[in-house]
Every structure is written in C-alpha cells, then in structure tokens.
Design a protein that fits this description.
Layout lengths: L3 E8 L3 E3 L17 E2 L7 E2 L1 H13 E7 H6 L13 E5 L14 E4 L2 H12 L3 E5 L2 H8 L5 E7 L7 E2 L15 E5 L2 E7 L3
Parallel strand pairs: 1-8, 1-9, 5-6, 5-8, 6-7
Antiparallel strand pairs: 2-10, 3-4, 9-12, 11-12
Length: 193
C-alpha cells in the first residue's frame, strides 16, 4: 500500500487560500521559471522545482479532496487534475445531478472511509490528501504518513489554514527535504508515530 501524503502550496503564515477562497500568489511559483512542468506548457518552474515536483506528481495515484474544492473547480470537468487516475471526494452529499458515473471520481462520506477507498484505488502509488480541512482531519485521524508543503513568500494574514481546524499537537520529524525554487521553498516532513 502506498503512503498517504498531505500536500499543498501555503503562505508563510500557514494559509492555503484567503477568506474568499482565492489562492492569491500561492501558485505564482508554478509560472516563475522556464522548465515546463506538464504537457500544457502553462506551468513553468525552476529546474529545482521541476526535479522535486515532477517525480512526486508522477507517483500520485489518487487525490483526496473535500466537496468544497470539488464544487469550486466544477469537478475539474470530470477529468482529474495533473494526470491523476482518481479523485476521492469527502462529502455527505451525492454526486452532482447529471454527473457522469463513468468519471473517475468517488464520493465518500467521512475522511477515514475516503482514505481507505483511495488506498484501494492507488495500490502501491501515493494517496495525496489536499491540505486544508480534509488534510487536517486525515492528520488528526493518524492517516497521514508525510506532509509536503510548497511555502510561498507571502503573508495572507487570514483565510483557510493549511492544517484546517486541527486543534491538537502533532509532531513531525525534522524536514528531510528543504529545496529553494523560484518563489517557493519545498519542504517534506515525515509524521512522527
């Protein structure tokens, strides 16, 4: 079974979006270089960011996200982002009316059930859990093996927190990856057990 990784771009003060759910400059690092990160040509990063990010993205089998993000993105028009095979959506509501049942999206109630379903689908590949409320719930439930952050040099002041509403202490190991790219610092921590 693959590892479970909580991941997202984050401001220096710990936010993944502002109060209006807007990322502001949090994704600017994805267009701040000259090395294409994907086939679209829209994402271009530094060589350091490419060497760190591309292999990680290639290792992801399933992404777990919340219904709020799914709704904000219009379900990525039924195509999982960044070439990922499946998306598991944590929700207590059914799929949207008219949703294509053949689309590789799975609607599951509760974060524990969602991660379990994602692990079934991913096999030995990585299960990525989006930072924010769902990621914080997975961390609090002891389901996260690793925390990855792309720390962007901006202070948002308020908004949606990287770890959601986690209200207990969780220890991480010392970072085993600390890499500086253009407009981003890539960090990786293993979760202490």
């Amino acid at each position: 079974m693959g590892k479970v990784v909580m991941y997202g771009s984050v401001s220096v003060d710990g936010f993944v979006a502002d109060e209006d759910d807007q990322p502001g400059p949090l994704f600017d690092w994805l267009t701040s270089g000259d090395v294409p990160l994907d086939g679209s040509g829209a994402l271009k990063v530094s060589q350091t960011s490419y060497d760190h990010t591309r292999p990680y993205w290639d290792s992801i089998g399933v992404t777990v996200t919340g219904r709020h993000v799914f709704d904000m993105t219009d379900g990525w028009d039924g195509t999982p982002p960044s070439g990922i095979d499946h998306v598991v959506v944590v929700t207590h509501r059914p799929a949207p009316e008219g949703w294509d049942p053949e689309a590789p999206f799975h609607f599951v109630a509760g974060v524990e059930a969602a991660v379990a379903r994602a692990q079934e689908l991913a096999g030995d590949r990585v299960v990525e859990v989006a930072a924010g409320d769902v990621g914080g719930q997975a961390l609090a439930a002891g389901l996260v093996d690793e925390v990855r952050m792309d720390v962007v040099p901006v202070v948002l002041g308020s908004g949606k927190r990287y770890f959601g509403s986690v209200d207990a202490q969780h220890l991480l190991e010392d970072p085993d990856v600390v890499l500086q790219g253009n407009r981003v610092l890539h960090l990786r921590y293993r979760v202490s057990r």
